[in-house]
Design brief:
The complex is a heterodimer of chains A (209) and B (307).
Chain A: H1 3-7, H2 9-31, H3 39-68, H4 77-99, H5 104-113, H6 115-132, H7 136-142, H8 144-151, H9 153-166, H10 174-195
Chain B: H1 11-14, H2 17-28, E1 50-51, H3 63-68, H4 81-85, E2 95-100, E3 106-109, H5 110-115, E4 120-127, E5 132-142, H6 143-149, E6 158-163, E7 183-187, H7 188-192, E8 197-202, E9 205-206, E10 216-218, E11 231-237, H8 244-248, E12 272-275, E13 282-283, H9 291-294
Parallel strand pairs in B: 1-4, 2-11, 5-12
Antiparallel strand pairs in B: 2-3, 4-5, 5-8, 6-7, 6-11, 8-9, 8-10, 12-13
Classes of the chains: A mainly alpha (209), B alpha+beta (307).
Chain lengths: 209, 307
């Protein structure tokens, strides 16, 4: 792995720009009126699926560092996690605004009555404190150990996100199943390395930059 | 004379629309012309359609949306898939068997079905169970016209419908998560109701494949999935027939599936809907706005129980 490349400043900019592409694509298609017959559904789906993708990409950083022997990948983890939150915010906004038109009572009823909405809400609100405490200052304030414990909420968030997707589809479960399998693999990797810690040090979460 | 559809190049791409419509009008002036079709029936213009007092005056959903945003699980579960993957669906020759508790059961050729009764344009609202709706100018005639021809017997209490199914032509079907062939059903009085039509076209043309060519059902006061597509078999029966979605998920989909804003789908509310092309959601109407015509069919029934 080209470690110099991984450490370079411009690669971070490239990853940042790439992570904005799905958003840019939505804006472009909206402007060209190319979001299809049901544009709001298109936006809801795109922002939802990208939230889940960024959660899984974020969770893939630690295994990839081990497998590729590229500890520098850690540089991108916070940014990727924040992009999951960014798309999660857009996704929630489409629901609050375009689906419910700020009818809070209706939304509360929705969360109470419908497991898939409840799962989505749980996934989002579990992400919020992680985004809020993503800065170096917060790591210091909480202390590495507590910070790490808090940030394990991402496992819950990703699992709730997959459940949200599963309960939403009518009968064709191929796509949610695929995301479920990927998440399971990412979690199994962690389980395996917890049982038998890797010989290489510094692959855990003690480094937080 | 042959009209081949689905050669890869749509005629709309190479011929100005006005020109090819005129040509089709010339070609398709007589229903008999359809007999000459090779493998497809889609996109042929109808002439002299009767207008119907049952039609709504609401704004039509654009042709593009009606024909590009479809649920037709035999051809894929994503809304844009049927338009792409049903392109080469062979709909000619086509027969529909009408059988069961009937004095004169018969297998009808598509061409005979077309000529069985005067074709009308029926502009109906269609409400999908997923919470969106469209307004479509369908072409067809009351299903009762067909059922009367086969002389329903005293034991004919329900009508069961079966879609055509062919795994070779529908390779996506095995991923759909529901069993095929797709089956649906109506109570006899629902089937004989004047709003229930046997449908051959939309927007003045024969049905595009993705909308259920060559012949489908349209029951406007029920959720869209009751309006079964590409019908191969109709059977008059004594007992309430199986229906695909109520069998796949009985908690979520019932036999009746009347549009009802007060009875939620377990996973989402049915109180509102998004009319395609509109930004704000609108209130869903009881029986999809056909309450005056059909409420009598369900007098005294608990619609929460019989959802």
């Amino acid at each position: 792995m080209g470690h110099a490349v991984l450490r370079s400043r411009w690669l971070k900019a490239v990853v940042f720009a790439a992570a904005l592409l799905p958003f840019a694509s939505l804006l472009w298609r909206a402007w060209r009126l190319e979001l299809g017959a049901n544009p709001i559904e298109t936006v809801t789906r795109a922002t939802g699926i990208w939230t889940l993708r960024f959660l899984l990409i974020t969770l893939a950083v630690t295994p990839l560092r081990g497998i590729l022997g590229a500890p520098d990948l850690i540089r991108f983890r916070r940014m990727l996690g924040l992009f999951a939150f960014f798309y999660g915010c857009l996704h929630l906004m489409t629901y609050v605004w375009f689906d419910k038109f700020f009818d809070w009572r209706d939304m509360l009823a929705d969360v109470g009555k419908r497991p898939f909405i409840a799962a989505g809400a749980a996934a989002f609100f579990a992400m919020a404190p992680l985004a809020a405490t993503s800065t170096r200052r917060w790591v210091g304030r909480l202390g590495g150990k507590r910070w790490r414990r808090l940030h394990r909420l991402i496992y819950f968030s990703a699992a709730a996100g997959v459940a949200h997707y599963f309960w939403l589809v009518k009968s064709d479960i191929r796509s949610p199943a695929l995301y479920g399998v990927i998440l399971a693999m990412l979690l199994l990797y962690r389980l395996a390395s917890a049982v038998r810690p890797p010989s290489r040090s510094n692959l855990g979460m003690d480094q937080t930059s | 004379m042959l009209i081949r559809i689905g050669s890869g190049i749509r005629s709309s791409e190479i011929t100005p629309k006005g020109a090819y419509l005129n040509r089709r009008r010339l070609l398709a002036g007589a229903a008999g012309m359809l007999m000459a079709h090779d493998r497809a029936t889609a996109g042929v213009k109808f002439d002299g359609l009767k207008r119907s007092p049952f039609s709504t005056t609401e704004k039509l959903t654009p042709y593009k949306d009606v024909t590009q945003y479809n649920n037709f699980y035999e051809f894929g579960t994503q809304k844009d898939e049927p338009a792409r993957l049903a392109k080469n669906f062979v709909t000619s020759p086509w027969q529909v068997a009408v059988e069961g508790e009937a004095g004169k059961p018969k297998v009808f050729d598509y061409e005979d079905l077309l000529k069985l009764a005067p074709l009308e344009e029926r502009i109906y609202r269609m409400r999908c169970v997923e919470g969106w709706s469209i307004v479509v100018p369908w072409v067809g005639y009351p299903l009762s016209e067909l059922l009367k021809r086969v002389e329903p017997g005293s034991k004919a209490k329900f009508v069961s419908f079966q879609s055509y199914y062919n795994a070779k032509q529908m390779p996506q079907a095995r991923f759909a998560g529901i069993p095929f062939p797709y089956v649906e059903g109506l109570r006899m009085d629902e089937a004989m109701h004047p709003l229930t039509i046997l449908c051959f076209g939309l927007y003045g043309e024969t049905l595009p494949n993705q909308n259920g060519a060559p012949v489908r059902l349209v029951v406007p006061w029920k959720y869209g999935f009751k309006s079964i597509k590409s019908i191969a078999r109709i059977r008059l029966v004594e007992k309430q027939p199986r229906t695909t979605w109520s069998e796949a998920n009985p908690r979520e989909y019932g036999f009746y599936s009347n549009v009802n804003p007060k009875v939620d789908h377990p996973r989402w509310s049915q109180a509102k809907e998004r009319r395609l092309g509109e930004f704000f959601k609108r209130d869903t109407l009881m029986f999809n706005g056909y309450e005056e015509q059909v409420a009598g069919l369900y007098a005294g029934m608990d619609l929460r129980k019989y959802y």
